[in-house]
């Protein structure tokens, strides 16, 4: 696995920790020794192709499914246990089942009480959530009369009832219109530091803007994980595009001794790769490079830090399919 290794964080620092978790559905191996450490207070993105194991990971974390092997820990209290985790861990499942004939307000009240919100607080709490997901006007309507996106918003809202410490959101903005998706993203990003949120999404731009950490799952394993800035190389890589004209490489190299500079003539892009150093921020590296380029007569057309998460994702080699249980190849211990 590249990025930050699971061992780098201890269970005490983690809101969610899965170690060597395996899960098969008959002959399908959905999780194949998955290691995942979600730091407390982070907004953590889980990405991966269809069938990678994201929903299975969520289901095991929430206690809806049991792992075949491995360890699961939520908030330092072991695997999900209603007595320890009720109200502290909440989730938006991929397909949330709501009571079709209940009104929105009754549904949220019922779920809020289940999650431990007290009888005196529940009314104000439901009003807060209705406002948050922009459903105040539909509060008295029955669930069955809501559109797909509105149902999704009820599901998101119920996950934030009370004061949960760990919230698991499986594809929260799937099916929302752009304005609603934007407001949910803003709300989630604003929660950073107050609670831990894990989001699975196929929208890599969303993960990059909302999350501070990310793990990429492929075929039941984490293949890359760490802070977004490390995964995208924001603090160790800069690309500078140059228009037609001089390319004063020697000057840049003299200004940045010890750093790697690569010139791609076809793309007219200069890539700088550097290590973090005490007293030198990425901005200082950009400044020194631009100064040298301008002094050498270069015409700068763009400056980009790191690579997009989408590019990192697309550049990862496709993993070989895991062997089927009982196939005789590398199998469970
Ligand atoms: P997606 O992005 O498509 O939602 P995912 O990453 O959430 O996918 P999972 O739903 O966890 O992936 O599925 C992982 C693997 O387990 C897939 O091969 C899937 O077909 C299989 N799987 C999931 N649920 C079941 C089930 N109930 N019975 C049999 N196989 C299942």
How far is it from the N-terminal to the C-terminal residue, by CA? 20 Å
- Output the CATH homologous superfamily of the largest domain: P-loop containing nucleotide triphosphate hydrolases
What percent of residues adopt helix (DSSP H or I)? 25-40%
- Rough shape? elongated
Q: Total number of β-strand segments?
A: 14
Low-confidence stretches: 2-8, 322-333
Instruction: Enumerate how many helices there are, as a single number.
Output: 11
CATH topology of the largest domain: Rossmann fold
**Average pLDDT, all residues:** 88
Q: How many distinct domains? A: 2
Strand content: 25-35%
Describe this structure in words.
The structure is a single chain. It is elongated, with a radius of gyration of 23 Å. The two termini are 20 Å apart. With 333 residues, the protein is of the alpha/beta class. Helices cover 29% and strands 26% of the residues. The chain has a seven-stranded mixed β-sheet, sandwiched between helices. It contains eleven helices and 14 strands. It has two domains: 219 residues, 3-Layer(aba) Sandwich (Rossmann fold), CATH 3.40.50; 70 residues, Alpha-Beta Plaits, CATH 3.30.70. The site of adenosine-5'-triphosphate (ATP) has 11 residues, from strand 3 and helix 1.
């Amino acid at each position: 696995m590249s990025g930050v290794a699971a061992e780098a964080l201890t269970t005490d620092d983690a809101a969610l920790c899965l170690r060597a978790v395996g899960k098969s559905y008959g002959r399908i191996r959905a999780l194949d020794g998955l290691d995942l450490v979600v730091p407390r207070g982070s907004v953590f993105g889980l990405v991966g192709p269809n069938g990678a194991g994201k929903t299975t990971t969520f289901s095991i974390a929430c206690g809806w499914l049991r792992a075949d092997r491995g360890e699961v820990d939520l908030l330092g209290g072991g695997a999900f246990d209603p007595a320890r985790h009720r109200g502290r861990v909440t989730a938006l499942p991929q397909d949330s089942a709501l009571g079709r004939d209940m009104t929105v307000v009754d549904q949220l009240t019922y779920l809020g009480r289940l999650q431990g919100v007290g009888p005196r607080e529940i009314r104000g709490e439901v009003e807060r959530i209705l406002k948050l997901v922009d459903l105040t006007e539909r509060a008295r309507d029955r669930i069955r009369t809501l559109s797909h996106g509105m149902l999704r918003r009820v599901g998101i809202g119920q996950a934030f009832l009370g004061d949960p410490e760990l919230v698991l959101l499986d594809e929260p903005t799937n099916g929302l219109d752009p304005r609603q998706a934007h407001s949910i993203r803003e709300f989630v990003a604003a929660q950073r530091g107050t609670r831990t949120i894990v989001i699975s999404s196929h929208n890599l731009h969303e993960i990059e803007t909302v999350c501070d950490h990310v793990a990429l799952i492929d075929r039941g394993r984490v293949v890359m994980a760490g802070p977004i800035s490390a995964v995208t190389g924001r603090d160790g890589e800069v690309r500078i595009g140059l228009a037609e004209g001089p390319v004063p490489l020697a000057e840049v190299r003299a200004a940045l001794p010890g750093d790697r500079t690569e010139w791609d003539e076809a793309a007219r892009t200069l890539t700088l790769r550097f290590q973090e150093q005490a007293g030198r921020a990425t901005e200082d590296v950009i400044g020194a490079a631009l100064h040298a380029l301008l002094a050498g007569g270069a015409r700068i057309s763009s400056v980009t830090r790191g690579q997009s998460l989408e590019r990192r994702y697309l550049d990862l080699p496709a993993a070989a399919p895991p062997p089927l249980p009982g196939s005789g190849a590398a199998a469970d211990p």
